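Onboarding guide, step 5: your first structure request.
Type a short instruction followed by the sequence, for example:

Predict the 3D structure of this protein.
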Amino acid sequence: MDFRWKIKHKANPSQVEHLSQEINVNPTLANMLVNRGVVDFQTAKDFFRPDLDKLHDPFLMKDMDLAVDRIIQAVEREEKILVYGDYDVDGTTSVALFYGFLKEFYDRVDYYIPDRYKEGYGISEKGVKYAAENGISLVVSLDCGIKALDKIDLANTLGVDFVICDHHTPGETLPKAVAILDPKRSDCGYPYKELSGCGVGFKLIQAYSQKTGRNPASLYSYLDLLAVSIASDIVPISGENRVLAYYGLDRINNNPRPGLKALILKGKVEKDIDITDIVFKIGPRINASGRIEHAKASVELLLSKDLEGAIRKAELVEDVNATRKNFDENITKEALQMIEDRESLGSYRTTVLFKEDWHKGVIGIVASRCIEKFYRPTIILTESNNKATGSARSVYDFDIYEAIQECSELLDQFGGHKYAAGLTLAVGNVPAFQAKFEQVVRTRIREEHLRPTLEIDDELLLDQINYKFFNILKQMAPFGPGNPEPVFCANQVYAENVRVLKEKHLRFEIVQDGQQTRPVCIGFGFGKYYDFLNSKMRFNIAFEVRENTFRNTSSLQLYVKDIKFD
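The system replies with structure tokens like these:
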């Protein structure tokens, strides 16, 4: 991929010098930390030593008191409670967390996940009627509900109360629920706005525990689920999410629940698990059930009490995941061919594709795959229940949700975030939507949005790369959106000892005039550069600093992100 390198601006020199002296790090590290909002000893302490005692008071969230009081009332009156969640990773981890917590002390509780194909996203009419027909008087919805105005009206007429926990952007009108917990509400003063859906559910059980005097330690046993939701839903790993992800990863690596342990074994993750491992190895397996069959299987797996039973359930999920991969590969191939077949390919600023028989469960993945090849805001649509339903994915720094909102007169419903959204419309509206979306994006998007951007923290001299430097980088984890793994560049280097690995990867050393250090670089997929590197031609290289352990010996390696020749 042809990256545009964007080297971050140098931070305020006086702040860099002050931080460098206060926490005893070199100016390069201090500059990088200031650029990430770490400006003094206290913010450095909060960043490098996350503390659960510094989580925000959950009662700062609008309607939290109403939500907690309604749940307390339901428990006291022995009402039936239904925990209702979406079918993706955020939704299923939310349900497992909230249901698992309630079930510890209250028996009259059940959970419900809508069928992706029969009911679609969010709170469904079928789900509301299920609650009413089964004598359920309180539903707690997680990761959905903020736009379910008519469904909540229906619930109210049927005598079913709703507490909504969501993190998606609300519409102009809120549903008439008993309580609506969503930090993105315009009237909500909660200090941190970027919680996952599972994170909002966690704040509710935190508030319930405070109000009823439950031991907070029992809450923290659910942080492994919360870390999975934070990673998989691609929310920023900053502020409160950073604290929750830090302790959630610690739990996953040291004492994971049986369901997650079984998934780790299936994913063959043999090192300490990080955010990337969750995104690529654990999350997709949890997601597979909801994509191909029914997400209830994933919730059952996450709620497993013993490893043996969890492994059996994980094997079923693994089979479904294999099917998902097959659909994903075939549909991606079709979609890429459709893009290439378009006339005037270069003139388009968007990709909007529709095919009635594409599998609904993988269209979000296919949208991401299309962006990897053709870097444009992308929407993949298929037919479901006589409607066109789709998943949208965006490119760096372009708000696809706002662009879709501009086309709302053509849509039945839509929802989502800056980088990902879902939408439903009449099949007959697809051509008009394709045209309108292209027009809207064309007026908003800039040329730099249409070329993938590689953000680089700073330029390094090779002698700066040592274990003292790396050990501080390592403490900056967990990495993810809002706190990306640091990327550096070294300029005017040349390669020696270039070797090809498995016909498409490269291993080589780089040399820089005046520097003693000759780091080993690993370039996955960089085989095409073999002749250039072997010719001793000078180049600039962008990389992450990693540790490689082989036969109990550890050394630093550079993981190549991009190479540019003058």
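Each response can be followed by summary notes, for example: The CA atoms of residues 85 and 113 lie 5 Å apart.
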